[in-house]
Amino acid sequence: MAKLTPYIVSENAKAQSEFYTQALGGEIVSVMTHGQLPDAKEELKDKIMHLSFVAAGVTFFVTDCVFEPLSRGNAVNLSLEFATEAEAREAFDKLAVGGKVKYPLAPAFWGTLFGQLEDKFGVSWMISTEARAS
Questions:
Q1: Global pTM?
Q2: Does a structural domain hold residue 23?
Q3: Average pLDDT over residues 7-20
Q4: Which residue has the higher pLDDT, 39 or 98?
Q5: Is residue 45 part of a domain?
Q6: pLDDT tens, residue by residue, 43-68
Q7: CATH code for the domain of 19
Q8: Residue-number span of the structural domain to which 125 is assigned
Q9: Do 88 and 60 fall into the same domain?
């Protein structure tokens, strides 16, 4: 069995991680910079090589993009499902700050709340609530 951990490539891994832990509740667990590597290049010493954080109860990894230009796409969305409407609305509203709402959080025909947004870092999120038993 595998365990999936989202790994985000960022232009500013520390700022992005701080934003998510504030928006979703959580904490930064560990940080390793390129400066901790033997023979690190001076211009990379403060760049994040690997950062682990927990937000909304999910473990995420993030790294600064340093070896090639960052290329954003729409092929992957991070989907968070919350137990309550209040949790979903709070997460959606906080992640949307500085970003772009694609679909407002609203009742969906399949019986849950659903919304989609792109945050200020260009990451696409789908926020929903758990389906209610009928």
A1: 0.89
A2: yes
A3: 97
A4: 98
A5: yes
A6: 999 999 999 999 999 999 999 999 88
A7: 3.30.720
A8: 78-129
A9: no
Query: In the numeric block, which tokens belong to residue 109?
Result: 């025909």
Q: Is residue 2 part of a domain?
A: no
> Would residue 134 count as lying in a domain?
no
Contact 126, 115 (CB under 8 A): yes
Q: Are 44 and 66 in contact (CB under 8 A)?
A: yes
| Residue 132 pLDDT exceeds 80 | no
Backbone angles phi, psi at 15, to 5 degrees: -65, -40
- Would you say 28 and 53 are in contact if contact means Cβ atoms under 8 Å apart? yes
> In sequence order, what DSSP letters do the residues of 40-63 get, joined into one string?
--GGGTTSEEEEEEEETTEEEEEE
Once rounded to an integer, what is the mean pLDDT over residues 77-97? 96
d(CA 62, CA 132): 33
- Tokens standing for residue 9: 């490539």
CA distance 39 to 42: 9
User: Based on the domain organization, do 49 and 87 belong to the same domain?
Assistant: no
Instruction: Say what the pLDDT of residue 75 is.
Output: 83
59 plus 107 within the same structural domain: no
